[in-house]
Amino acid sequence: MIETIVVTLVSLVVGAFVSWWVARRYYVAASRELEVEAAELRRLTTLVLRALEEGGVVDLNRNAAGEITGLILNAMVAEARGTSRVTGDLTVEPRAQGDDSTTATQR
What we know:
Elements: H1 2-54, E1 58-62, E2 68-73, E3 90-93, E4 103-106
Antiparallel strand pairs: 1-2, 3-4
């Protein structure tokens, strides 16, 4: 009876340790991948923000270390209006015998 209890407890402890070890390895690897991806996204975001700043779309706020801490959006308002009017008379004359072109006159 005591032997069964001891074997059960040892099995429980060994199983818990193996589960913890496998899960820890998985989460450590996933954490490393996440850090690499976050660094790449941070780099790309910085490139986009710098391009927007150079284009005059935003002004970037930076801390003493030069890291971007915020931005100010420069409002760009544009309006374009226009009208056009075309009038005219078109006269089409019938083709002469053997003439393949069409003659149009404009007044």
